Amino acid sequence: MLEFPKWKVWLVSLVVAAGVLLSIPSLIAGTPYASAWPKWLPHYKINLGLDLAGGSHLLLEADAQDALKQRLQAKEDEVATELRRDPRIDVGDISTAGGRLSFLVRDPTKVDAAVERMRRLSQPLQLTGNRDWDVQVVDSTRIVLTPTPAGTNQALKDAMGVARDVVRRRIDPGGTKEITVVTEGGNRILVEVPGVEDPEELKKLIGQTARLEFKLVDLSADPTQVQQGRAPPGSQVLPMADGSGFMAVKRRVMVSGDQLTSASQSFDSQTGAPDIQIKFNTAGARRFGRATQENVGKPFAIILDDKILSAPNINEPILGGNAQISGNFTVQSAHDLAVSLASGKLPVKLNVIEERTVSAELGQDSIHKGAIASIVSVLAVIVFMLVTYGRFGVYANIALVVNAFLILGIMAMFNATLTLPGIAGFILTIGAAVDANVLINERIREEIRRGRRLIDAVETGYHEAFRAIFDANVTHVISAAIMAYFGSGPVRGFAVVLMIGVVTSVFTAVYFTRMLVALWIRRTRPRELHI
Amino acid sequence: MKLLKLVPDHTNLDFMRWRNLALVLSLIATVASIAFTAYRGLNLGIDFIGGQVIRVEFQQPVKIDDLRTRVARLGVGEASIQALGNDRTYQVRLPKPEGPEAASNQVVSKLRAALPQAYPGARVDAGESVSGKVSEELAQDSAMAIGLAMLGIAIYIWFRFEWQFGVGALVTLAHDVAMTLGFFAFTRLQVDLNVVAAFLTIVGYSLNDTVVIYDRVRENLRKYRKMAILPLLNLSLNETLARTVVTSLTVLLALGILMLIGPQVIFGLAIAIFLGVLIGTYSSIYISVPMLVWLGVQPDSFLKTDEKDEAEPQTA
ipTM of the predicted structure? Predict the structure, then answer.
């Protein structure tokens, strides 16, 4: 009991000092003292959860149906481009019915060549040996491309990665804010933006797929048929964005938003209405230039997410790769769309399935009340310990304060996030630490009653109490681990504090107090114990 | 300085004398609690059933009926409105809208826009919207977490002690959880994700108490091999009584303060743990220990382990 070598004392003191040093930056954050903290000391800080700091939390889920649709459309474009390349293979209209692509090869002798070129388009998937598209010939001249399940899965996975980056760029074009954007569970994205109290703006930015396409208007279509939703072969009917009816456009894409290099909000030079200035990359500019050259005098449709924004006439070939998109924009909506276009289209539509917002004021109020309540309850416990155990109560109290510093210090070191339930976890851990000391002290009292000598009683007290302390703490770890695994945000915050607290409270309540007691006994050699 | 001793030295209460009465009463209370919860249901928050909640703070006092009429006029479904402490802060809760997920949070947007128009200076402090899909997952995960935590802990106890102790701990936990559920059903306090954290804490805390007493029972079983089981259990309970009282009081003290002056957001969590501590203290004495008698723990129980180790029957 009394053997407590110097190096151990130093080591324990070092740990305690580190805990205090690490926790101070978090405690003085936001106060004038923060700037006075010396630069050469550690600057780790505890993050405040959104429930304390204020901000928006959104959980987005990929629309799997939409992902399939977008993939099919991209493939259609790819197939059409491939078949037009030299040597050109003439085919009938490409159908996308039933989630598959199919088309007739006009010249039966070219079926094999077409199949070969389609096979080359499909990608082998890693390890499995499967390809992402299955190519078959039906009725000797019809080629059918079916997406394989493995290919669809891979595509969704890739799409989620891209979607995450697009979401991040849209919310934070400058890349300067402390936002969290992470994929969760295969088809979800978690977005956390501190400081944003009104999530509407965020939802608008994320809600738009921003798939921009330019297609020629099909002037041969019968207007009454179009209003009924029927389009001639090779064309499709799309609604106007302002709800003013429908229009038939060619299925073939002149040029798409994938080939933009920039987009910004500007004003129309003639009408002064807000519009969007876009710039194509070299390939896009060439494609757009050629398409406009061939179709001077005809109208083309500017299509956003399958809705027609406007259908201006091509007055002259547009060769420089610059274009304006006009529509019924306000300055804000034009700006939002420009941001969305510049960040790229979302490869899959995202739905908001969970939303939580807390204002900074409410968060501040919670921190304030939580801090006061914590301090008052710790003070109450300290007084209670003092009147119950005297000197040993003082040791328990010192351990309690050290424990609080250690928890904060470790949380700061790991950059952990403190949430409201985390504060409750903090208080619970303090309770567990107190319990450990109560167990020890009651046991010492008991051993003294049984007539043991002082040192012997203290020794036995620590030894016998430790078994129960250990078992009790293991049960805490079990429930904390399960909480951390299954729980969502706030519950997890609770579990993290609890887990750190279990370790620190065993250290402070058992090891640290024991050192204090040993040092005291060695120094004063007391004859009797007042406990 | 005279130190405080809440439990006098040499206290010797005959706890086990009332064990059958206590078991019967506890059983009745547990069954009643489960039946009541099943009959009346819990006041589940949107975390578990989906829907939307916003918290609004007004500049001037607002009458609840006035607010209700205005919200009703928006046509956003049947809103339940609750004052939070004063007549300037309200919580408006809306049911989960029918239809596609995409529409689910448009209602909150509507309220966000409409309320400041009707009441100048009103501000929406917090808004939450949980879709049916997410809430189902949260409910499932939470139930699973509580169940697994109970099971995991019981298995640990079985490994550290004996199978009787593991079963005793599990029954004790089931009692505590059932009673706390009954309390929430009775008071209509809202059950949200924070309360799940509280349930897990209760599970952990109640076990803490049980473990301490079981530890002493194990120690005494080894020490006094000739002592009959009932006096031995009584002895163990009395020896740990001081600790039980001091610890429970300390934790109740801390939680009571948190409940009274802590942030309103964690009131549910604090009161659940507070209650759990009370229930847990009772059950560790009157359920976990009598269960040992009932399951036939004998003074030589721990001798057997040393000799034939894993050969114990493992039925529970």
Answer: 0.82
